[in-house]
Predict the structure.
Amino acid sequence: MLQRNLLFLILAPVGLLAAKRPNIIFIFSDDHAANAVSAYGSRLQDVAPTPNIDRIGREGIRFDNCFVTNALCGPCRAVIQTGKHSHLNGFLENHHVFNGDQQTFPKLLQKSGYQTAVIGKWHLGSDPQGFDHWNVLPGQGTYYKPEFRTPEGKEPGKVGSYVTDVVTEKSIDWLNTGRNKDKPFMLMVQHKAPHRFWLPPIKYLKEYSEKIYPEPDNMLDDYQGRRSAAHMQDMTLRLSMDLAVDNKMVPYRMDHMTPGQQKTWLEHFVKIRKKLLKAKPRGDELVRWKYQRYMADYLACIRAMDDSIGRLLDHLTETGLDKNTVVIYSSDQGFFLGEHGWFDKRFMYEESMRTPLLARWPGVIKPGSVSMEMVSNLDFAQTFLDIAGIGIPNDMQGLSLKPILEGRSPKNWRDAVYYHYYCYPEYHAVRRHDGVRTERYKLIHYYDLQEWELFDLKKDPHEMRSLHFSDGHKKVMDKLKEQLASLRKQYQVTEAPPLRTGKTLFPPLKEFGTFLIEN
Ligand code: CA
């Protein structure tokens, strides 16, 4: 039998083999909180639904417990490329440059006959390697008239264009005319949205500014019940969110817009600014005002992305590509949408550590499946390789999700995930920490501060009261410390680099912000 299979492999035309191996489209966004994906059923599901992302889960599977290992843009991307934790792939912080010479999953796919492409946000500093085609945003890229980078150099932005649409158009173009249709492919469609500074497309400015967004219960959190890191951060709506730039009360980054776009943009924001100057909200009222503004822009960026994902899914259906293509949606990590009074990510708390993950694979994934297993972005590389039928290198550190996609419940699945955030001093002043999350508990170690936090996620899902001091939890805490030590050993975690000297780059602003003081 084995010999017959071998003979088949040798004699079969390439096209026939290609037909048997599924294509993979990995749609990836930046800072898209699970709380802003309506399939996850959050407080925002009715006011800002994401029907097309939801459709992937409805026609396939939704993972309810997908966690990242280090909630920061660049590091998450490096984990996905390598299937290794940050300390092994070498990309610990955003200012690092990814060493593209190391083993990555696209190189392995390419070697086995897959055609590989990445379009959109790359954000790893060095040029992409292992891709037959790459067309990426320089650094963070711009929302309007985005420039791109290719192996040949810079590609100027198209007048009037919007980044989310361009990423999708380029992806569809590549599917239509760019690829070798005899080969299976892996296409990474990587959106800039909804990354800060949340510049929505003109068409959604008004609609999203007129909605009223439900607030999270802990938006006015005073951080009692947490250790010092939660008090010392610089990512509050109250103090850190900038009225001028984040809330767009002064014209910002409009140089990429057409005169027509600039005009509509200005008219829109001048109206809002007038109302603000009249109302002059202060204290908690200003926090509430900023939250509404923040959600209007953030969710409008997501609306445009959801539309464009719908276009891509429709294209797959129209061309019949959907039948043998696995479509996966995820974000590089989560985001605080006013929970704890915050925006941004970085902390090991649920909103930033959790990331959306949905997948569709006709004929394999049972539609409407939901997995509660603890999975991770550490698993993505191995999953891609496994889907393609390629052996997984021993030094990758995740687990293939393919058995879960196939509806099997793997025995002895992981019962804990390891997390490590390294980036301090830096924007938002989140102290370095590592920790372990199990189904029930979370233990966080702020090692530079020699402080621990312990949360019972069942009784305290919003992580408002650390139980590190509680005698009743001593046993749990000791067990988690053991688990943390064992995970550190399993993943070969090395000592964190010496703490950098220097202050955080941007100290908190005065509450009322420079803009309103001047006015
Ligand atoms: Ca990100």
In short: The mean pLDDT is 93.
